[in-house]
């Protein structure tokens, strides 16, 4: 793995300019590129716009005919979600297990990432492949055994069950992202600190952590995101008290007929956390999804 | 710069090993345990040997036929997804603006679908594609095409594929963009001096440089589409009939719907082995590509 990582890193240069030289080559096609990009972005935004559009309408307006924008803007759907406990508790439950999972994943991954970035050791490549297979394993396979496992140890229907279950794919992810950032810190710093008389824990917290702070941020963001978007395990491991918002959405809809406006408003609110932080991680998105290997 | 060999590094890796083993090996052992037993409820289990596996892999039995058809549907789905998303992703990556504030804007807008909870992705398309209240369904129906994703299998497939393209093409595009950004300026200058055509630049400079990220993109898209569950579950629930019942949906139905533990466990294991095998192939190819590049650069 030594080689793969070193090579992978040499790719990640903070360069924005090199493609500029290509402009002359594709001079007459610039318009074509703008057209492709515009069409693609339009395709991406339309369904989201439609959801936002619907969340601001009354059910009367939604079912009575197609309107391209809300004629009679109402915030009733949002008010209902923020005042009805059965709705907002879903968000609180989701946030609880997502936060527990993020903290756990980062805490476990930090020392492991350090080991991967600084040393070779027995079985490191095999360990790497094994972690990769866990990221690829279908949650459907784990749904039933997790249900049994967490029922047996009395964690069923608590945020801890979901948080631990999501560690399956988030811990490997955090290890890889952190490892990438840590390998960017020259090893001389470790050695200098040791010579200066820093003990390892003090070096790690006082000197090393500030250097990889942005890496921790990026890793935390992706742990948060992947835990936030997962539904199958979250729904299987909870029933009442820890029910995530995703489950609240599906169940309420089937029970009370179709309250489209409310459903749309609940959907819009689940997009908000991602939309809020996306700006800060925009240059790391590819890295996060590719397990830190871009 | 080679890293020193130090087996004490294992102490640092141990916590990760423990927690991932707890959530991976333990459950898999439970599955193995169930897969060789039969139960009639009441927590009474009987030894069934490889009976479930025989039934599962025998297309003439009911279980085997069900498994085979879900597997075929899932493979077909993955193949279509890759054929659409990879070329489209490359095209989008090549269309990224070169510099300025539009780069950041494009990145943010492209990444947005990736960060939406999967069930909400299903909900968005459930609403968007409906004939009565959804923009897409309404427009398509107005164009004179009879379109109803809850009733017609073809329409259901098209809707799920369009939904997945909407959801995940940005991932391919972002990865390719990361690969394109790493191409040194000098390459383009050399190509300009040689008078290379746009196609030649793509074929000989951009595509080879994107090979590694494309490999990762194909791996991720294949795996994620092969285990897709939430989005089609919300959108069509596997229907109409069984038209969009992919492996994951089938498995969850069997395991948590009917509590058919033995059958579900056998199916889980076979499913997992397929994933493992494909994963290994990709991993080997990836490691080889990396090693080869390292040799060239050294």
Walk me through the structure.
The complex is a heterodimer of chains A (294) and B (298). With 294 residues, chain A is an all-alpha fold. Chain A has 15 helices and no strands. The longest helix of chain A is centred in the middle third of the chain and has 34 residues. The two termini of chain A are 14 Å apart. With 298 residues, chain B is mainly alpha-helical. Chain B has a domain of 188 residues: MetI-like (MetI-like fold). In chain B, 72% of the residues lie in helices and 2% in strands. Chain B has a two-stranded antiparallel sheet with strand order 1-2. In chain B, strand 1 and strand 2 form a beta hairpin. The radius of gyration of chain B is 24 Å and the shape is globular. The relative contact order of chain B is 0.12. The mean pLDDT of chain B is 86. The chains are: A mainly alpha (294), B mainly alpha (298). At the A-B interface, helix 1, helix 2, helix 5, helix 6 and helix 7 of A face helix 1, helix 3, helix 4, helix 5 and helix 6 of B. Chain B: Its main location: membrane. Chain B: It comes from Microvirga terrestris. Chain B: This is Sugar ABC transporter permease. Chain B: It is a multi-pass membrane protein. Chain B: Pfam families: BPD_transp_1.
Short description:
Chain B: Residues 71-282 form the ABC transmembrane type-1 domain. Chain B: The chain crosses the membrane at residues 12-36, 75-94, 101-128, 156-180, 213-230, 264-285. Chain A has 294 residues and is mainly alpha-helical.
What are the salient characteristics of this protein?
heterodimer; A: about 290 residues; mainly alpha; 15 helices; disordered N terminus; B: about 300 residues; MetI-like fold; two-stranded antiparallel sheet; 12 helices
Furnish the topology, listing elements before pairings.
The complex is a heterodimer of chains A (294) and B (298).
Chain A: H1 2-11, H2 30-55, H3 59-64, H4 76-83, H5 85-118, H6 124-136, H7 139-152, H8 159-183, H9 187-195, H10 200-211, H11 213-229, H12 232-236, H13 245-255, H14 260-277, H15 285-289
Helix pairs in contact in A: 2-14, 4-5, 4-14, 5-8, 5-11, 5-13, 6-8, 8-11, 9-10
Chain B: H1 10-35, E1 37-39, E2 45-47, H2 51-56, H3 62-94, H4 101-111, H5 118-128, H6 135-142, H7 153-181, H8 185-193, H9 198-226, H10 230-235, H11 247-257, H12 261-297
Antiparallel strand pairs in B: 1-2
